[in-house]
């Protein structure tokens, strides 16, 4: 059985989260696992294809109740949806914008509301907006399938969902990482240049994840410096700090990241 | 609080484990996190500079007692030491070969012995041998330090520790991943070619971790196929399998990887 020796950095979202450790991408999950090594356990809670409607029941199961003293504390919680919610009807992934907003608020409230059984006032919440869609590449990719599929996402539609994430973050007073704007501005606001940052018109490539990682760490440094990796001590001591004559003196105290 | 929704794949070892998510390396920890996404949580329990003497007290704290019903089950446990234990005196990292063997047996016994408070008969244990040392590169690297340091590891010494890991695995009847031999054979048994697989004479580069990952997955496939990622179902269903009309029907049951 794995003991709870470290607190958690949870990444909750869709495929763009799930692929955060993809080989060759130096993606954000991998890089967080690297910089938070010996400090926080970075958990992949990305669910390919999921929207917020399907995410909520899973979220409820991934976040333990406050009354469970054995569960590791979530120090940082990133919530990243919108890429699938913004699908156009008749896609089964479509969630209307107003319900998307309500769903995000429900997730945040489950952790942030004192009345919630999952209330965790020390958890630092970060909302992330979906990247822009490259409809040229996405349309071609769907047309090439057998049978061909009509374009299922729109550039402005996803932009609207990204702006909604920003508004929810502001209203709920939690941190916001604006991946949509970071990627869009990096292209010089040119949809034809989105392929520099997206692998298939929808998902991020190495350059795209590089932007995500930079923006995320910048946000942590400014909004939540207490959970920046530079400000967390290692759970167990660096080897040079071990009492080599009497190792037990220095090694038998689990120093929770705090 | 993070709920226990998935079982664990724990990587326990020294810096060569800790660096398993290093950017640019496509290292084994990252790749395991990727292929086990939505199945097992891969935990980085690598401790740079540690030998087995220091590893044991930490191991005891990372492995929960069997009597703790709330802790996630460890489905796979990789134990990877030797690179530091094999240091030459007067290095404080040196652990005599006989004690190294005893320490490894103690770790395995803590999980495998029915008398142990941490007994977990369903945990699949894998021992891994350290890679060969490139003494040419290592000596030059240590000589370039200020002040210069004498060579702290020997090629044949580390080879002896690697063989000891193999012998312990056989005696304890647990799986063995022979990184030492895999890397050595890949060089054509030429120490001057080790730099193809090592970054600094001691730690693995991308090519080295590629070999580790291949050998590890091959070992799981042959010795412990029940915990190969292809044979574990996702904890939560793929999105196409969700009951879109009544999502709760398919999403409210946590299906533990089994």
From TrEMBL, chains A, B:
Residue ranges of the TM segments: none
Gene3D superfamilies: SGNH hydrolase (3.40.50.1110)
Domain SGNH hydrolase-type esterase: residue ranges: 11-211
Domain of life the protein comes from: Eukaryota
CDD domains: Isoamyl_acetate_hydrolase_like (cd01838)
Cited InterPro entries: Iah1-like (IPR045136), SGNH_hydro (IPR013830), SGNH_hydro_sf (IPR036514)
UniProt-listed PANTHER family: ISOAMYL ACETATE-HYDROLYZING ESTERASE 1, ISOAMYL ACETATE-HYDROLYZING ESTERASE 1 HOMOLOG
Protein's name according to its UniProt entry: SGNH hydrolase-type esterase domain-containing protein
